[in-house]
Structure of Threonylcarbamoyl-AMP synthase:
Amino acid sequence: MKTLISSDVRLLADLIRKGGVVVFPTETVFGIGASSFNEEACKRIYKIKGRPSDNPLIAHFSSIESIKSVCEVSEIAERLLLTFSPGPITLVLPKKNPIVFPKELPTLGVRIPKNPIIREWIEECGSPISAPSANLSGRPSLTRMSDALRYFDGVVDGILVAEEPKLGIESTVVGLYEDPPVLLRPGSIESNDLKRFLPNLVMPNSVTERGEFVPPSPGMKYKHYSPKANVKLLPSEKFLSEFRKCMYDSKTAWIGFSYVLNPSPGDESLEFDPTRMKFVSSNWEYSSALYAFFEFCDQIGIHTIYCEEPKEGEGKEGLLNRLQKASEDN
Ligand code: TXA
Ligand code: MG
């Protein structure tokens, strides 16, 4: 398939109106989208990703008004949208227009991306854009244009060229379709930010009294965000001791806080391939770099990626969740 790679929002909107599938960057991660009113096009996304068919897509909008045309927006939902949108938050709301994909579901995840160019494109498409993260199902989301091109050039109808994702992890997902509201996926907008508006916000109570696992959000039951390499999530001290032991093994890679890893000046013993290690100075920088680093490690055939635990405080919640998911079963 010939893929149109362009920053021209009109051309890319044309493709969507004709039933095409387009990969596009958002402030969180890349998305792979189609018109929410075109069931066939939306179903193609599942085929391309290998996504389980019971995992619904969220819809991307250009404005709060356009969300109101397809969902019930309660007073509190509107306050959240006014406070955190455009931005990295997805609200799952009761749906009022049944033609929006997925038709059979009474709820819809809605999100307004931050980049005005992306909103202009959505506006131009004339419909909401249903889009999961652009990645193969179960693998880390993509955050670099070069990675998006490698995976999707020749596979989708178009790739919209615009600013690359900065936040690096997927949006916070909040379920507002029942009381109490529930945090379905942690992200850059953290539970403390949300609790100012939703004091009764609950983390998903996913284990019933009989011990069954009942995922409140379909996406939660699938393995997620894992590179091919093994991911080991370690507290700082353990991370440092492993680093000292294994750093010369060319099949290992390291991501953590520079103050732990920085060799002291003049310590020549620490000379080795710097591309296998990524220094960060905050949880935000860590999130921003994480998936691109995973992707890079897979490209160069790394076997084990050692990740230092995030620091206490801002930016920890979403990052720790992704690191835990990536390191499950390792
Ligand atoms: O940052 C993001 O949210 C990115 C960009 C492209 O916007 N999108 C994204 O989509 O991460 P996806 O499909 O990979 O993750 C959406 C999550 C999934 O875990 C899905 O199960 C959940 O939201 N979800 C979607 N619709 C839902 C619904 N109606 N009820 C409950 N959970 C829902
Ligand atoms: Mg995803």
Summary: Residues 206-214 have pLDDT under 50 and may be disordered. Residues 26, 28-29, 31, 55-58, 90, 92, 105, 107-109, 111, 131-133, 170-171, 173, 184-185, 217-219 surround threonylcarbamoyladenylate (ligand 1) (CB under 6 Å). Residues 230-327 form a domain with the Rossmann fold fold (CATH 3.40.50).
